[in-house]
Amino acid sequence: MSTPASEFSEIDQNLDSKDEELKLKGYNMLLEILQNKPDNVEVLWRLARASHVLSLVAESKKDTNQKLKYLNEGIEYAQKALDINPNSAEAHKWFGVCTGSRGKSLSTKEKIKDGVVFKEHIEKAIELDGSDPELYNLLARFEFEVSQLSSMERRVAGWLFSEVPKGTIENALELFKKTEKLKPEPWKENKLLIAKCYIAQKDYSTAVSWLDQALGVPSISKKDEEFDEETKKLLNKYESHRKS
Q1: Which of 128, 144, 130 is nearest to 176 (CA)?
Q2: Which residues fall within 8 angstroms of residue 29, CB to CB, at 6 or more apart?
Q3: Would the pLDDT of 31 be above 90?
Q4: Cα-based torsion angle of the residue sequence 22, 49, 9, 87 in order, rounded to the nearest 10 degrees
Q5: Which among 131, 171, 128, 125 is positioned nearest to 147, based on CA atoms?
Q6: Structural domains in the chain?
Q7: Spatial distance between the Cα atoms of 147 and 115, rounded to a whole number of angstroms
Q8: Residue 238, Cβ neighbours under 10 Å: how many?
Q9: More confident residue, 244 or 219
Q10: Residue 73 has pLDDT above 70, yes or no
């Protein structure tokens, strides 16, 4: 039996809030619903999402243990959702996100293994729901990060898999631009990442144009302010390549 979307409206707003207490409230509200609806896929994938949201709060406080606890919890919720409905795009999405985020705090070997799992689930989510711009952004990040792997990391990947995971700047750029087309409102970080792709391709004048666009998007969070700082540093570095 499905749950009306209206039941989750307050929860979703809480998870989107900048307020840590509201984020935690949204998480606790989901736990309460879960007691009565333990097999509800929409509750389970939202708990995976909420766990990821709280992992970011823990990360901001440099609490790695708590961060990993939330991410592992999120993977468990998403896995349960997939056991019930293997065709839930959101369950695949949040399984992938929690797995990919967990890898950032693990060894190179575990990071690469989690990265491959992340890619599989994000690609499956896109197959099930190709209208979600965040999915293309996530896959683009994977392509970009794999393209930047060090030689040591590539050797580790070669030991783990018969074929080293592929990722190219060209694919990343295409996916970031796909995100731009699907996202209804301007996305500061996505524009910054497009600029980084052009920098990697040594197309500095185009990169400057995208950096200008990124800086032009209003900052609505502390994270946005951090992106602005990074954007300004890159602009200072490549300003001389600006087209007249």
Answers
A1: 144
A2: 10, 11, 14
A3: yes
A4: -170
A5: 171
A6: 9-184 (1.25.40.10), 187-244 (no CATH)
A7: 13
A8: 17
A9: 219
A10: yes
Q: What is the dihedral of CA 227, 233, 236, 237, to 10 degrees?
A: -120
What's at 115, amino acid-wise? G
Determine the length of the chain.
244
| Contact in structure between 187 and 223 (CB atoms under 8 Å) | no
Q: Spell out where the chain has E strands.
A: none
pLDDT tens digits for 117-168?
999 999 999 999 999 999 999 999 999 988 887 777 777 777 766 666 678 9
Helix pair angle (108-128, 89-103), 10° resolution: 160
Name 236's Cβ contacts closer than 8 Å, sequence gap at least 6: none
- Percent of the chain's residues with pLDDT above 90: 76
Write the Ramachandran bin of 62: left for phi over 0, alpha for psi from -120 to 50, otherwise beta.
left
pLDDT 10s digits, 188-223: 999 999 999 999 999 999 999 999 999 999 998 888
- Cα gap 204→135, rounded to integer Å: 27
User: Tokens 């293997």 — which residue?
Assistant: 86
